[in-house]
Amino acid sequence: MTQFVLRDDDANATTPPARLERAYAPLLDAGFAINLSVIPDVALDTLAPDGARERFLCAAQERHLQKITLTSQHELSQWIRRHPTQLVPLVHGLTHSRVREGTEFGALSAVEAGDRMDRGKSILEAALGAPVEGFVAPWDAMSRGAITAALSRFRVLSTSWLDRAKLAPKHWPAHYAERLRRRETLELDRCRVLRHRGGPIGPSLDPSLVSSTLDRLSSGADVCVVVLHHWMFWESDAPHPVVRALAKALARRRVAPMTSPIAA
Ligand SMILES: [Zn+2]
Questions:
Q1: Would you say residue 263 lies in a domain?
Q2: Model pLDDT for residues 206-224, shown as the tens digit of each residue
Q3: In a domain, 10, yes or no
Q4: How many domains does the chain have?
Q5: What is the whole-number distance in angstroms between the Cα of residue 137 and the centre of ligand 1?
């Protein structure tokens, strides 16, 4: 039976947790755990492709700052710590800025990527007071060096796709074996790598298609990572119909986080 994993990207020091909680109320009320992929040291000047400020940035009053480092004092950290079994953190890059060629980790060497990963991990662990075992690159963009760096630092890596050119030759057999059945999970070194088939579950999806979309994303897979962005769903006070439909569609499926919850 396929394991479904809920992955929410982009929470950061500027995120009001009450708003995030409201957006995901149908999922949280149903008791599902969510892997929150948290930006440790969020840059405040990153622009979306349309030229507007990235929509996960909520710090209008702090625009004079270039970035905000998450600490144990931020509301987001306290909220995660209060719900250790339901909110399971992952490291989402370091700053989520466009460091080189439009992404944070898509064009870095292993040394450059490893340095950013180490800094992000230690900021997040200090803020949450617990080890954080998983990594998600902003925009899921990873160079070959970034993949090498992540494999030696994390127990779980969630990403969109891998190809042979991004993997060391010693990893090709595991990659080919995975592709044969499209199981979407493979062990590389001591890291479990989870692939996903895109993030079509957004506010413009017809809610009546959520269940069949999950079927398509998970067909034949051992693990199906459902990629979500809270900021796409939090414009209104009431939960979005797509989030309600997702909670309903998951009720009949096995849902578990990709990493173990942090200790209470
Ligand atoms: Zn992101």
A1: no
A2: 999 999 999 999 999 999 9
A3: yes
A4: 1
A5: 7
Domain of residue 73: give its range: 3-255
Cα–ligand 1 centroid distance for 212 (angstroms): 25
Identify the CATH number of the domain in which residue 44 sits. Answer: 3.20.20.370
- What are the pLDDT digits (tens) for 79-100? 999 999 999 999 999 999 999 9
**Measured in angstroms, how far is the CA atom of residue 234 from the centroid of ligand 1?**
16
Residue 124 C-alpha to ligand 1 middle, in angstroms? 15
How many angstroms does the Cα of residue 97 sit away from the middle of ligand 1?
A: 9
* pTM over the 0.90 mark: yes
CA of 45 to the centre of ligand 1 (A): 14
- Answer yes or no: is pLDDT of 249 > 60: yes
Residue 264 lies in a domain: no
Domain-located, residue 262: no
State the pLDDT confidence band at 62, using cuts at 50, 70 and 90.
Answer: low
Q: How many CB atoms lie within 10 A of CB 28?
A: 18
Q: Ligand 1 centre and the CA of 263: distance in Å?
A: 25
